[in-house]
Amino acid sequence: MAVLFLFIVLVSFIIQSLTGFGGPLIAMPLGIAVVGVSTAKPVVTLAAWLSAAIIAVKNRRDIDYKELFKMSGVMLVFMVAGLWLFKNIKMSYLQVVYGIIVILIGLKKLFFPSEKPMPKWLAAAAICAAGIMQGLFVSGGSFLVIYAVSAIPEKKKFRATLSGVWTIVNILLLVSYALDGSFTRPVLTTAAWSLIPIFGAVVIGSVLAGRLNQKTFLKVAYLLLVVSGAILLITNI
Fold first, then answer.
1. Do the Cβ atoms of 56 and 163 come closer than 8 Å?
2. Distance CA 232, CA 176 (A)
C-alpha cells in the first residue's frame, strides 16, 4: 500500500510540476483510498508545499506578485472555513461530496475545456471556493484556475505564480497539522519516504514542461481525475 501511495504522489506531482496545479486534486482521492485521509492529507500537503516552493523559487522572476498576494490573501481567509468543516462534518459525507466534485471537474475539463472570461463576482467566488477546498482536501487548484487563467494568461507566469500561491497557503495547513497532532510517527515516516517521488516529480516535470504536448497530457490527467473521483465515491457510499 505504501509503495502504491508513493507512486500516486510521483504521478500526481509530475502533473503539478508541469502545470502549476492539479497534483493534490489527483493525489488526494486515490491517496485516501489507499492509506486513509489521516495520512494522505498531511503527506500530500507537504508534497504540494515542497514541490511548489522549489518551482516558485526557481522561477521567482516570472511570478506576478500582485496576483500572488491577492489570491493567497483571499484563499487564506476561506481556508479557515474549510478546516472548520473538515473537523466538524462527518468524513464519509465530505468524501462523497468531494468525489462528486472531482468527477464533475474532470468531466468538465475533458468535454468543455475552454476557460472563457467571466464576471468579476464569479471570478472572486472561484477564489473563495478554492480556499474552502484547499482547507478541506488540499484541492483548491481547479477552482483557482477558473480565476487565474484569465488573470495570468502567459504560461510561464501562470505556472510560477500558482506555485507561489501553494507555497504560501500550504504553510497554514502544515502549521494546523502540527498543532492538532496530525504528524504522527507513521505519517512522518510516510512523509519522509515521499521526499523521493516529490523531488523526482519536480525534475521530471521540469524536463517535460518544454517538450510534452500539454493538451494531450492534460486530457490524460482529467481522465485520471474522473477515475479517482469515482474510486472515492464508490468506497464511501
1. yes
2. 24
Residue 61 has pLDDT above 80, yes or no: yes
Grid coordinates in use for 162?
A: 500558482
Q: Please, what is the Cα angle at 95 between 93 and 101, to 5 degrees?
A: 110
The pTM of this model reads: 0.82
How many Cβ atoms sit within 10 Å of the Cβ of residue 182?
17
Tally of CA atoms within 13 A in the half-sphere of 122 that contains its CB: 8
Inter-CA distances, 66 with 49, 69, 78, 168, 235, Å: 20, 6, 19, 14, 42
Nine cell digits for residue 212: 510534452
What is the average per-residue pLDDT within 5-12? 93
Please say whether the dihedral angle defined by the alpha carbons of residues 119, 214, 107 and 165, taken in this order, is positive or negative. negative
Summarize the confidence of residues 144-173 as an average pLDDT: 87
What digits encode the pLDDT tens for the residues 97-155? 888 887 887 788 778 776 566 677 888 888 998 899 899 888 887 788 778 877 887 87
Binning the chain into helix, strand and coil, the percentages to the nearest 5 are 85, 0, 15
54: domain range? 2-236
DSSP string, 4-68: HHHHHHHHHHHHHHHHSS-HHHHHHHHHHHHH-HHHHHHHHHHHHHHHHHHHHHHTGGG--HHHH
- Number of independent structural domains in the chain: 1
Using N-to-C axis directions, what is the helix angle for 120-137 and 141-151, rounded to 10°? 150
